[in-house]
Amino acid sequence: MPMLLRGSPMSPFARKVRMAILHLGLAEKIEFVRADPMNPEDVLRQDNPLGKIPVLITPDGKAIYDSRVILEYLDHAAGGGIIIPMPMDSPHAAAARAPKSIRADYPDDGSGGLSSLLSCVRPEIRQFVHPVYRMAHLDQDA
User: Which residue, 13, 54, 62, 63, shows the most beta carbons closer than 10 Å to its own?
Assistant: First the structure.
């Protein structure tokens, strides 16, 4: 049985799940079915008594609702760690696992690497960076 995603094209939560499905390469395994949460007779109510969308029906017939829970399920189904980060031992575990070339490009200056990363921001975009951050990090070299 293929998975079913019940939702509405107008729902931002259903759109978020559909984007994740495409990103994870699961589009061939999941069929999108339009649901009307305003209609008490809609089949949606059988899967989710709250009548909220989206709802994912798994291959074994279980209903999963809440877009965050659906995203976690889909990420796990696609192999894990693709759209939801894997658990880490410590806050610095990701940096320790990064290749040395990446760590050298973004040295730790106490800003979490943001000042090095944002030093590449084009001058015409700098106006949109938060003013406090801009004064502290970007305007030094302007």
Answer: 54
